[in-house]
Amino acid sequence: MADDGMLLNFEFGDAPLKSQVKFKGGRWRDRLKAQRSVKLHQDGPSSTPQDDDASRSAKRPRTEDGGSHRYAKMPRTADSNTKPPSHAMKTGQISSSLFTSNPAAVTDFEQPPVEEAEPAKPSNAPLSDEAENFHSLGLSRRVAQHLATKLEMKAPTAIQKNTVPVLIKEDSDAFLQAETGSGKTLAYLLPIVQRIMALSLNEDGTPKKTRVHRNSGLFAIILAPTRELCKQIAAVLEKLLRCASWLVCTTVIGGESKKSEKARIRKGVNILIATPGRLTDHLDNTEVLNVGTVRWLVLDEGDRMMEMGFEDDLKAIVRKIRVDKLEKENAEGVVLDGVLPSRRVTVLCSATMKMNVQKLGEISLEDAVHITASKSEMEGDADASNEAAFSAPSQLKQACIIAPAKLRLVTLIALLKSTFARKGSVMKAIIFISCADSVDFHYELLKDTKALEPPTPEDSGTQPDRNIHTESTVAPAAYVTSPANPKVMLHRLHGSLTQPVRSATLNAFSTCKDPAVLITTDISSRGLDVPAVDLVIEYDPAFAGADHVHRIGRTARAGRAGKAVLFLLPGSEEGYTSILSTSTPIAPQLYESILQKGLASAVNLPSTPTTAETEKQTWSSRAEALQLHLEQRLLAAASPASAANDDNAEDGGPPSKFNNAKGKPRQQQQKGYPIKPKDNPLLDAGRRAFRSHIRAYATHVREERVYFDITQLHLGHMAKAFGLREPPGGIGGGVARRAHNKGGGGGAGEKKGRMVGSGGANVGSSSSTRRDDGDGDGVGAAVDEDAARRMKQKMRMVMNASSEFNIG
Q1: Considering 38, 272, 367, 706, which has the largest number of Cβ atoms within 10 A of its Cβ?
Q2: What is the mean pLDDT of residues 379-383?
């Protein structure tokens, strides 16, 4: 009883008092989410996230007249409601659910797959007929015995059987067309080596009085679109020339010293492998390069060279070789006619007959014979629109995974983890990604943060020195290891790397004895023959359907088995498989089966200071914990102390000791103002990769944009595939984005969850976009003429004008 007679009766109940939690620092969105989460847990189990979503009012739908560019919230489908619910994390962090608000897949996964009556016979394997051997094709016993004993090749493939006799006996041009991995390289190398050897050897194998050597003249030039393919052709040719040690071959490619190349040409060479740009340079500036004795000009992967913009260079090369007078004997008096072709022979190799290939044929070929792997196709008329005969090998198993954008990253990790779950099942895998920025980001994200241990003095005599060129491109992988394969090596390769780094990385991947993964762009899609590649993953679909065949052709080569997996988004992308030319059906798979198999056990996280837990009971909780862990890695910033010592820190806090250039000291921590930490380099890489990926998505060919419609792409969901909480802005700015963002080009993606539409980023509106087609540096948006010229000048200074492949 109070003094004034008022009775105070306050009842608090049995429940404990609710403590008010205040969050400071960080982004205001994160603070708001954290406060809502605390309030949700304090209110008790009566309020659930599902109830909160149900009571929330719908967003304003998009109007027909285009007055509003807001999009309505994506409808919740029956399939999405049946997905596993979001599990609360014990870390105190907020993780948006991966299994809600996802678009429903159109494909019917309930239908059982069609089982084959018997396994398909390999379509690119060597012939099994005992009567078929290399000697029966017209090759000398010396060459045939060398192939059988040294190279372990006893029987030819179908394309080699049809090509070698024609090029040995006849002097006409030829157009070779066969599927990937069928042996086209040896199909044109064997006749060239056989006829050059005939200048020094008689039919019975005895040497002639006059034997040609490296100074006897240049007899053949082989052109390839990429440096990696040139080096691979040279490696095959060097093995073949071991039976004729007096013949010499060499390469002239971009990225290497032209002075050393001129020295090798001056010393003498019989067969030259080159890229078009560098060969054009030598034809104009290298006087010792004499093409008067050249009898063969081989254009390997002709369609790729035309796509990469080498048409002018190819015209100049063909014109330069044809204008010079054909020498009937060399400087030493050796008669060339009668043994070598009496005219210059051009051989064009391509897996398809596109319009650009036909145009290249008109430039280079004269009365050419069409040679394929099948006799019936050679006798009949070639149908330019029929590419079914030149599809993937029949023994290659193909599948496509329908995964929503939010689940792409965890599904990829689960697929790799299940792939290397058994010892010896898969030795090497290749992941194709659209752009170089995305390759760099996924490499940094998936590699183990623990540095390689330096070799001890005891191991210095037994282990070779570590290659300095692969220190930034080869590292142990995290997340995908297993008790059966505790060590998986991760590699990255794209056109922005220097030539020594590219060569060393490709060699490390080819010779790696441990299970290995190569993350690469389309630079590795043509002609590369890496042994023991059992799996090809197209994480980003190819920019054109024809490139799909070349990508998956890196596996199932020369009759070996292989598997290819294609990632697609639910919706319009699912129809993409209907236009692919395949000899085997593409089996659709839902992401749930991949997650269940790959996340059946805990994921081995790298040694990073994160608090995510993967020791969960269900695969869905492990998937959410893995996604949270990846997002935490990107959000982990540098310490404030390191930011305080950086004089070039960004705005938002006193980053250094001095206030300005005059040297006046700052008052650190004045009025409690914190020092802004530096951004995580991994976060910056993720933002760059996201922007480049969206720009690359807009560069699909016109005929396929009905399947890859950028207006249907959800930026908020796609951001989670790069470990980002929200999509970064500036997508339409490109490499030369202006500060004030004139024209509204960078307005898309600034709000989380916004889809790319008519009011979003100006992505793909111009044709002047760039891709990593072979030796470029990724994907860029359209820029004006002045900005493009300045960027070219800057790239020229950086690369020392050494690469003719830096197009765009």
Answers
A1: 272
A2: 44
